[in-house]
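Running log. JK asked me to keep both predictions on one page so they can be read side by side. First protein, sequence followed by its tokens:
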Amino acid sequence: MNEIYKKLAICLESVRAKTKFVPKVALILGSGLGDYADGIQIEQTIDYTQIEGFPVSTVAGHKGRFVFGYVNETPVVIMQGRIHYYEGYAMSDVVLPTRLMGMLGAEKLILTNAAGGVNYDYKPGDFMLITDHIAVGVPNPLIGENLDELGVRFPDMSEVYSASMREMIKQEAAKLSIYLQEGVYVQLTGPAYETPAEIRMCRNWGGDAVGMSTACEAMAARHMGMEVCGISCITNLAAGMSAQQLDHKEVQETADRVAEQFKKLITAVVGRIC
């Protein structure tokens, strides 16, 4: 058995020893949204440290646990604290939680993140519906021996972010009077914020927002047949677009400021998915 799949199987067995809950929707919460899971109908929580072989997030503000429960009547699993490539983990570990949630039963994945605005039309506090991504700046999570148990060797990526889910998100945002930007997300490694030259490169590539997560998780999810959507919270203008220096405190403060709107949108979206 492939070593990566063997590790996944061990994690799955460890989780299944603690809960039989079967989610239909998986959510990965970015900066500022971590406490969303505290407000749902919680059935069970499992700390990452309780799962054999599971990588543990080291980012401040990320709790590091799975929350199983219901949003309205939809069974969900929520990842409170994601794993980032810049923490030093192998890419297979970064996407392990995504794959695990799919193996637990989740058919759809909602990705959220805090991102820097690359597009000059964006401002801090905007939400961007991800239409596509550019992930050439990080290792592809499918490199190496294919996990045949999950998907094919050469998966199609022409529609990573589901068109039908995007349309539904736009409808729910309109009902809530939430303005949505739409654009391309660029994933780079971090943990340093990008240089002004790197931001110009992202813009020339066609990117509208930049961050340190999400695209790799989306690819892993699509490989195993999950339907994916993603929403970025634009927490700052990227390097070189203003005179302000970038720091994580600003990212957290902006994310916190718009968190209530973000939570309302996520709740509405989950309610429509199943």
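And the second, directly underneath as requested:
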Amino acid sequence: MNIDEKSGRGKKKMNEKYDEKQGEPVLAAEGLIRNYTKTGEQKGKDEIKVLKGLNFQVDRQEFVGIMGRSGCGKTTLLKILGMIDRQTDGKLYFKGSDTEELWKDELADIRRRDIGFVFQDFYLMDSLSVEENIMLPMILGREKESVMTKAAQEYAEKFLISHLVKKNPYELSGGEKQRVAICRALINDPDLVLADEPTGNLDSKSGKIVIDALTQINREFKKTIVMVTHDPQMASYCSRIILLKDGLILDTLKRGESQEAFYQEIIGRMAEL
């Protein structure tokens, strides 16, 4: 059996398991640990313990925020959740399947098809048009041109950038670039969207446009979102916040009816981080 056959069989098994258990969380972490070996003179002698045994889950259609000070492990955790990096120990389940049991090509397929990524620095290709940047995951998946063009146009219209599709990214503002990145993240209709400081490089007006777009993705498109942010105002849009401190979960905050009250609660807890 070749790798493609193995990959197809693995994907079928994963999807069947998820279909049978509709209550299964999109993500589940059990004892997640991530250590890095120090480089330089201390190489091989000591390890940097970034994540120290995290246990949590993310349910379907949740909008979960991850907050903590610089160096607490937020981005490392997001990379593991997106299967860009591997944990040193512990388990990560994606739609009920143990990610350690998946082949590398299966993981690549999941990252392309089932997970949408939104980064602080956009990662758009200036040599491509806005439309081509949006279509990129479909291009890599060798989708038909007519299907790609239609999908790109639909998302561009939804996020109010249809007038920009023939431009190049270097001609856009930061907020416009991030909306392009959001369209790209959604083009394959993923189950999960991972956002790493999506408003970090934006002014307050552009940041508000982007967080409104993410809220729309969550509420109207029914997408599950996990967002790393240092901004309590942006975090207040989430339904739940995981507070990280020194590689451990300090606490989990849940939003009630009032966004303002949630914002004030987040502000009050930040001193503990």
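Observation for JK regarding the second prediction: The chain has nine helices and ten strands.
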